[in-house]
Amino acid sequence: MNQQQQQIERFCRRLGYQFLDPQLITKALTHRSASNHHNERLEFLGDAVLGMVIARALFTQFPKVDEGQLSRMRSSLVKGKTLAVIAKEIDLGDYINLGEGELKSGGFRRASILADAFEAVIGAVYLDAGFEKTNTLILELYGQRLTEINPADTQKDAKTRLQELLQSRRLSLPEYELLDVSGEPHDQTFEVACCITEKAIQTKGSGSSRRNAEQLAAEKALTELQQLLAS
Amino acid sequence: MNQQQQQIERFCRRLGYQFLDPQLITKALTHRSASNHHNERLEFLGDAVLGMVIARALFTQFPKVDEGQLSRMRSSLVKGKTLAVIAKEIDLGDYINLGEGELKSGGFRRASILADAFEAVIGAVYLDAGFEKTNTLILELYGQRLTEINPADTQKDAKTRLQELLQSRRLSLPEYELLDVSGEPHDQTFEVACCITEKAIQTKGSGSSRRNAEQLAAEKALTELQQLLAS
């Protein structure tokens, strides 16, 4: 057994799954910087499998929770940041095959590379073992993250919450206005105002996109409105 | 058998699947305007199942196509417009249970209601029959749309194509600049310029979002650049 095979053996023990076809896991661990036989197609497949496994688990676990809440919980469980954390738990970064450049710049620690490789590993397990075994493995890897997730932790975004609060009090919807765009074309800053005329609330937010600026302005307006309504 | 049961019988024949648990299909066909026992949770589940079935089918059917292209093909196959077309082919609109208001305003013809109900039906079949049978049914319903899809038909967006063409000719990347934002806060128009300095190309685009405006400007710049390079 050569060194690469030994490495892969070790990773499979760490992952908790032995491949019938070792070429699949070799490919899943190969970043595009290292070879043309890289993991991106497996990542595409793994992303879809993961999305379905998490959707089914949440659907079963929360029989009373509505679709919007389920969607938000799913997003928080399959986003890159979460996948990178799980990837680190199984030391995935130690086993990714990277090109010279990525190695030198510490690519094995980059969240996006870890998350993508994790999805590719899921895709490889799925091709090797089918849906049910992949499902079991994913649930094991997620562990408490899935069993202890709380619907209330995944909030709607600030603009939505502000709109809902206003509607529940029969107040008019807020108006967002773009006040200013500054900076170089590739690095602009947007400044936005959020106005709730009936309550004389006007807040401002700025960010690298109009959307981010609006969310910040909405967050501040929501705080002011809640204080006003509570007083 | 009452009238509603007869209706559902008819729809199941049209769909090509007989439910073991008829309550599932009843729920899948119930819009939130008609009852609290509506189809939105099933829609959440069906969306994930559909996404995975189409991802797996494309992955197998196109062994040489890269991840980006697979993603774009999948998007075009699972977008609301496509789902609404398939829903119409099985006359889904005739069987959706809508509230008074939606009925009067012709909700059974609305693409979003049809697409959502179609996903809910997929979710119901999945709960009733499991993955493999749902997979078979989805592939039947998609038919030629899936077997005859051409990777070249789903193009990358204009900004990406422009960037790739410039890179392949070792030219600098374009600069996008926001020229103007006009209109009321809820109905703004963005005007954007796209500049390729080395080739003295400058085009403009306008749209309801900055992104749309940039895509239009990029599309025009791409046309000018192609003409210039071909001449």
TrEMBL record, chains A, B:
Mg(2+) binds at residues 43, 116, 119. CDD domains: DSRM_RNAse_III_family, RIBOc. GO terms for cellular component: cytoplasm. The keyword Acyltransferase does not apply. InterPro entries: dsRBD_dom, RNase_III, RNase_III_dom, RNase_III_sf. Its cofactor is Mg(2+). Residues 8-130 form the RNase III domain. It catalyses: Endonucleolytic cleavage to 5'-phosphomonoester. It holds the Pfam family dsrm. The active site is at residues 47, 119. Its EC number is 3.1.26.3. It is found in: Cytoplasm. Residues 157-227 form the DRBM domain. Keywords: Cytoplasm, Endonuclease, Hydrolase, Magnesium, Metal-binding, mRNA processing, Nuclease, RNA-binding, rRNA processing, rRNA-binding, tRNA processing. Transmembrane segments: none annotated. It is an enzyme of class 3 (hydrolase). NCBIfam families: RNaseIII. Digests double-stranded RNA. Involved in the processing of primary rRNA transcript to yield the immediate precursors to the large and small rRNAs (23S and 16S). Processes some mRNAs, and tRNAs when they are encoded in the rRNA operon. Processes pre-crRNA and tracrRNA of type II CRISPR loci if present in the organism. Belongs to the ribonuclease III family. Homodimer. HAMAP family: RNase_III. This is Ribonuclease 3. It comes from Kangiella sediminilitoris. The gene is rnc.
